[in-house]
């Protein structure tokens, strides 16, 4: 039998109802805050991700599904959505009428990481991006939105981590200080970090290898190197979070795994998923739109990892399951044909109706109705057809009433 590819998964009925509820809540919340949905392709030119996420990141170096198509173009299954949303903002000149735009998108991303709990090769994100505003209020509002989302969907035990990565003025100074520290600590670093410490020293702060973590414990902090503008921006983000009563920890090591960030970065972390502790992450990326050939517009955003989120929320899929409203137990050919017409009419009215096509006994049909969790059963046989009245049984109270066949759809609708 052909099985799933490792790291990929099916989301089955019985689980999918929770996903649907989460997505519905996210759409409604984001739309209430002025975000518009944008749908972007799953395949993009490989170069888009190399230039935005950065050549020296784990994602681009090791994790992208990149292949040449039949014409030899190098294309990639998107590992994240931000780069594509920025490409779209530039390509369609979405900034022309008003540079301030807010988008959200929900869908699958692909990274060839080592699969484990909370880490998949195809995973889903709810992504939100704001363009054209540099105000620290936006950074705080994004974090506020995340905290509202998590609260609404019963995910507790989450911690907000924030940091600032400075800008093109102050970050080079920090990189210099970090490089000096790294050359002294070289012996303790993993081979990836040794290689990266020259080309992209910030990445070393993000390394999860235990020897690197301990070697970096006393590394210089970016927060001691921020220019006055970045410092003021970061203070304003923190003040706004306090105003929103959102507790947070300042985490000077939070550089995130993507190179496009400037100023604020943040992550929502959980203790419930072992090593995969980030349920959402994001930040500001003021240089990316220009770097990809667009106007000099600031931007900020976040992505929630849906796969991780469903594992930590207290909500259960069964609370959103839609069992049949009615099961029509039909006995005999004539009743069956009548039941079929009714089931279609119920469907059109938004009433979920099921019936048995196999001509089974009443007892076995009742058993199936029970197994499906039907709330009511309509029993119709030759005798009922003759008498022009059928039995409606409430499966919870076990109460039975006779209802006339004429106008049956309306009558049942009233009784449900
Ligand atoms: P990211 O931190 O790479 O950021 O991913 C965001 C979230 O996606 C993570 O916090 C995690 O919950 C989930 N995630 C990432 N990789 C996996 C995986 N292999 N399996 C399951 N879940 C995963 C971004 O992608 C940025 N584009 C976020 C952003 C938007 N920054 C600005 N705007």
TrEMBL record:
Q: Which UniProt keywords apply?
A: Aminoacyl-tRNA synthetase, ATP-binding, Cytoplasm, Ligase, Nucleotide-binding, Protein biosynthesis
Tree of life domain: Bacteria
Matches recorded under Pfam families = HGTP_anticodon, tRNA-synt_His
Q: Which family does it belong to?
A: Belongs to the class-II aminoacyl-tRNA synthetase family.
Q: How does it assemble?
A: Homodimer.
Catalytic activity, EC: 6.1.1.21
GO terms assigned for molecular function: ATP binding; histidine-tRNA ligase activity
Q: Which residues form a coiled coil?
A: none
Instruction: Indicate the enzyme's highest-level EC class.
Output: ligase
Q: What is this protein called?
A: Histidine--tRNA ligase
Kindly list the positions annotated as binding L-histidine: 80-82, 111, 125, 129, 256, 260-261
Q: Aminoacyl-transfer RNA synthetases class-II family profile domain location, by residue?
A: 1-310
The record's listing under Gene3D superfamilies reads: Anticodon-binding domain, Bira Bifunctional Protein, Domain 2
Q: Please provide, in alphabetical order, the Gene Ontology terms of the cellular component aspect for this entry.
A: cytoplasm
Q: Which organism is it from?
A: Candidatus Desulfaltia bathyphila
Kindly report the protein's main subcellular placement as a broad class: cytoplasm
Q: Which PANTHER family match?
A: HISTIDINE--TRNA LIGASE, MITOCHONDRIAL-RELATED (PTHR43707:SF1), HISTIDYL-TRNA SYNTHETASE (PTHR43707)
Q: Where in the cell is it found?
A: Cytoplasm
Known HAMAP family for this protein?
A: His_tRNA_synth
Q: Which NCBIfam families match?
A: hisS
What this protein catalyses is:
tRNA(His) + L-histidine + ATP = L-histidyl-tRNA(His) + AMP + diphosphate + H(+)
A Gene Ontology biological process term: histidyl-tRNA aminoacylation
């Amino acid at each position: 039998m052909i099985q799933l590819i490792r790291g990929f998964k099916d989301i089955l009925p019985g689980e999918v109802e929770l996903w649907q509820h989460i997505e519905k809540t996210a759409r409604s919340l984001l739309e209430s805050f002025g975000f518009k949905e944008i749908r972007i392709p799953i395949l993009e030119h490989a170069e888009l991700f190399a230039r935005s996420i950065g050549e020296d990141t784990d994602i681009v170096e090791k994790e992208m599904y990149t292949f040449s198509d039949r014409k030899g173009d190098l294309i990639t299954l998107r590992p994240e959505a931000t780069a594509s949303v920025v490409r779209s903002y530039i390509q369609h000149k979405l900034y022309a009428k008003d540079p301030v735009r807010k988008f959200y998108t929900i869908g699958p991303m692909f990274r060839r990481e080592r699969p484990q709990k909370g880490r998949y090769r195809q995973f889903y994100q709810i992504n939100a991006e704001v363009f054209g505003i540099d105000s620290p209020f936006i950074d705080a509002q994004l974090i506020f939105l995340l905290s509202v989302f998590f609260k609404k969907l019963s995910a507790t035990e989450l911690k907000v981590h924030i940091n600032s990565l400075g800008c093109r003025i102050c970050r080079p100074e920090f990189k210099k200080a970090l490089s000096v520290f790294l050359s002294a600590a070289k012996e303790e670093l993993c081979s990836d970090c040794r290689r990266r410490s020259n080309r992209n020293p910030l990445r070393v702060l993000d390394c999860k290898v235990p020897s690197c973590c301990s070697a970096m414990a006393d590394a210089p902090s970016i927060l001691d190197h921020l220019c006055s503008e970045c410092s003021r921006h970061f203070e304003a983000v923190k003040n706004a979070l306090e105003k929103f009563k959102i507790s947070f920890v300042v985490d000077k090591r939070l550089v995130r795994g993507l190179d496009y960030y400037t100023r604020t970065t943040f992550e929502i972390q959980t203790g419930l998923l072992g090593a995969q502790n980030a349920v959402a992450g994001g930040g500001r990326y003021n240089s990316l739109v220009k770097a990809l050939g667009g106007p000099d517009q600031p931007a900020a955003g976040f992505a929630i990892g849906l796969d991780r989120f469903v594992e930590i929320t207290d909500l259960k899929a069964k609370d959103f399951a839609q069992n049949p409203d009615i099961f029509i137990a039909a006995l005999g050919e004539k009743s069956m044909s009548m039941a079929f017409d009714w089931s279609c009419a119920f469907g059109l009215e938004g009433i979920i109706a099921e019936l048995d096509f196999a001509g089974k006994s009443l007892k076995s049909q009742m058993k199936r109705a029970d197994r499906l969790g039907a709330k009511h059963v309509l029993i119709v046989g030759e005798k009922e057809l003759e008498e022009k009245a059928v039995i409606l049984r409430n499966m919870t109270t076990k109460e039975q009433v006779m209802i006339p066949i004429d106008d049956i759809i309306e009558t049942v609708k009233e009784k449900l």
